[in-house]
Amino acid sequence: MECSEPLGLVRSDLQTRRSHVLLAASGSVAAIKFENLCRSFSEWAEVRAVTTKSALHFIDTSSLSRDVVLYTDDDEWSTWSKIGDSVLHIELRKWADLMVIAPLSANTLGKIAGGLCDNLLTCIVRAWDYSKPLFVAPAMNTFMWNNPFTERHLSLITELGISLIPPVTKRLACGDYGNGAMAEPSVINATVRLSFPHPFLNVSNPHPPRGGDLPPQ
User: Which of 11, 88, 140, 189 could bridge 144 with an S-S bond, Cβ 3.0-4.6 Å?
Assistant: First the structure.
């Protein structure tokens, strides 16, 4: 479900709500798996989604669960009209307990490593509180993955405290066989959940009462 109204965010005590997970997708063909990723995380968390313009080329937004509110670059501007209004990338940064960028394209990796912030996704990362987890799952052609710039960029973002969910070796969308394919949504979900055990989440009951949600969009 896409955002169509200004964002108002209400924080609540962790004991009364599910984890807040911000899922983001950048422009890689692996974004076709974004709907599955959102569904996996929605089983145990409140999910908000952010996509770049390029990512939308691969995502059928109508297939996203109605529980998942999608924010795009257009919302960054449409939700603000005057001084004093909430700024979307700041409010999403405040709302989230953790962020996952999957897929992370070579282009967005380079932007994050260089501190660039020219869209909603990268503005959130530039404003991110690194005391909170941020995971990335890269997806790119093997030649791009093996490029020396990729190693440099990964080193830089790792120094910030960003956690890498490495790509896998398989037949890529272009037909080549090699490393660079995004990890499967189930692997990303399991990795994040094991690394971020919500202190009040009953694993035997992954659907505790909801609270602290965004007002209806």
Answer: 140
Distance between CA atoms of residues 152 and 32, nearest Å: 27
- Domains with residue ranges and CATH for the chain: 20-78+85-195 (3.40.50.1950)
Which one from 20, 89, 153, 198 is the annotated catalytic residue?
Answer: 89
Supply the pLDDT for residue 196. Answer: 80
pTM for this entry:
0.85
| Model pLDDT, residue 215 | 34
Q: Which of 52, 51, 23 is nearest to 36 (CA)?
A: 23
Q: Which amino acid is at 127?
A: A
pLDDT tens figures, 23-49: 999 999 999 999 999 999 999 999 999
Is residue 166 predicted with pLDDT exceeding 70? yes
Q: Is 57 a catalytic residue?
A: no
Q: Contact, 145 vs 111, CB < 8 A?
A: no
